[in-house]
Input
Amino acid sequence: MTPDPAGFTADGIDSQAWEEAVAAALNALAAEFSLAEERRGNTAERYASSAGGRSAEPASVSQRSTWLDTFDWRLHKAGLTLEYLPGRGGSELRLASRARAGAARGSASSPAGQDGVPEQAAVQPVTGWQASRPHLLADLAGGPVGTRLAALIEPRALVPVADTAVATTVYRLLNADSKTVARLVVSRPRLVSGRQATPLPPRLAIAEVRGYQVQERRAVRLLAAVPGLSPAVEPLLADALRALGRRAGDYSNKVDAAITGAMPAAAAAAAILLRLLDTIEVNVPGVLADIDTEFLHDLRVSVRRTRSALKLFGDVLGLTRKELAFFAAEFKWVGDVTTPTRDLDVHLLDFEETARGLAAAKPDDLEPFRAFLEQRRRKEFRALARGLRGARFTALTADWRRRLAAVQASSAGPARASATRSGQSGRASVGRAGLLAAERTRVTFAKVARQGAAITADSPAESLHDLRKRCKELRYALEFFAPLHDGAASAKVVGDLKRLQDCLGEFQDTEIQIAEIRALAAAMHAAGEAPAVTLLAMGEITASLAARQRAARADFERRFAAFAGIDGQRRVSALLRGGASR
Amino acid sequence: MRIYATYNIKGGVGKTTTAVNLAYLAAESGLRTVLWDLDPQGAASFMFRVKPRVKGGGRALISGKRPLDDAIKGTDFDNLDLIPADFTYRNMDLLLDSADGRHGADGKHGGEGKPDAVPGGKPARKLGRLLAPLAGEYDVVFLDCPPSVSLVSENVLHAADVIVVPLIPTTLSVRTLEQLSDFVGEFKGHKPRLVAFFSMVDRRKKLHREITEKLTSDGAEVAATAIPALSVIETMSVERAPVAVFAPSSAAAKAYRALWGEIGG
Output
């Protein structure tokens, strides 16, 4: 029997109230069943004290577990929980669906979730797992948990989010023949942090004995009527996180600042930029610990968004032109410091797929290339770490936060005069966030439409690269102001824009990669680390990149027309009208 | 899935205590085990504190109207389930005969002679077919058979992989084993392994000593382990539990462990 730890939770605010609820539950069940505490180990030991003279210990068994998720909560979002359970007989990872963990009865089964995740837990034995450290998918390769998580978490690492210890006591519910007809499982969890253990609300569940459903349902009904108990709807992890002052899903790289159309433009601008700064800062430890490549990626995206936001609506913050230029330059510096590492990450992340896609060369031919990339990355990463640990970066984030907080504080009242682009204070037309969003997004869209329409089959590659930048600015503008827009209309516009961006991105990224591989080949050759087969394989990669670039170029016109044709323009106008009036 | 049956034509030789104790030991060793109490008296069901009652009675189970799965009850022990006895099992011969014979739903044999008259024919294998769907769920099945020579026992013998025969050390019971061995020897195709052991052995009786020491039988193995006649075994019906549960270090519990070591290996 593996009792399900969910079912009911005690509601009270402290341990005393919780224990009173457990006692009330035992009393309620005792009115209809005889209760006997299950003894440790094999059930036979229940009788051992009378027959064999041994004293039976209570069956309170304690289980430690470390709960894992990616930094951006991908398991939580997919309705899953993952636990590492250390054990003397062998340690394991247990992947479960949250719907199951929250079931009201020990035996309850509900259909697969919307995402089709099966209800059954997947279990994978692991050896040498270090609970306190992050683990990449490669650490669980080959097992059922690894297989199920591959598409979901890669390239993110699994990081420990909470440690718990659960003491479980099992009671048998007996009928008049002293036959066990159900079991009550009482779990008393604690949040473990270093040497400290904080009690969490106990959980009670009824586990069914086969063939005795009527009694099991009766026991569940008795528990449901106990004051101080309510159905457990969340996994234990949720209680543990609450005790830590956190909640699942508390990190996302989305902008989602709390803005409204009626708030002062300066306050909205500061809220958006503060949200971006939060994302930058919260990713720094993960970048420096080199946990996975997405920390750096998210940090860089937030830096790019910050620079775009400064361009788009920095003027409403009330800073001088000089100050704006200073912060823009500093954030550009952060981008530059981190670019070489990110470029090498991209090569390495794509490496397996690229190697598999080789037609003439063998994947092994590329191994010296991989070794070269890894060596380069180590060097570049050291430079990046020096930058992010240095005084310049620390001062930048601290100053920027101070300035933005001041803007928020001074614009807390009703909308009023905001600075104009000239740096002088004046009565701007964009006093409120709704108007700011509509005006600035419209201007950005107009640039995209104009530049894109001017592109012909003969246009140089640079014109497409420029358009890509404008598209990125527009995308950011739509994301910054998303809370002001109608969700469905926004999704359509953003979807079309995303497909255009993907096309332009493919066109430019393949070009950059070709140039980089050529440069790397030259560097390897110069260092005497370039076997002929490796250079041939690298040549093959550049050839396939060039083919992809041509395909992207051929696709451009269709993508652009879908986004910025007559219908697209109408959709954007409608979206912005709605946003301004909200 | 391995099917064990405890069988003897005679009653009161320790079939049920053997089935209950060995099924418990199988489950304890980690094998997913189910015991079907086929005896309408329901002694095995009583030992596990399960009411000797099946919804719809034996008819519903044998006709297939109710899957065997539905009748299963969990015992108080890990890995061990029970299909309870029912008083209607006393008519099980008739039920087995009619289930897919002349009154069968498919009507295949409608009016075309007497398939039940053929030894080892369809009705004799009905029980085995009913058990087949449990293969995914259980590693071990125990059939506790009522004492008789009947269509039920013929079904049990056909279904079983191992027939465990408790023998009281008397000359007559040794003859019965030879008869059983001859009968099983005539089976076409699947032949169960026949393992006898001495049950209720009283070492103080000269006859018991002589017979247990000398018996050899063609076609049937005789286990080296004998189960002594001990009062603790009789206590099972008071404790309503396997011996290994309420008297784990008793001589009886050790003897059953040794027997399971021989038979279950």
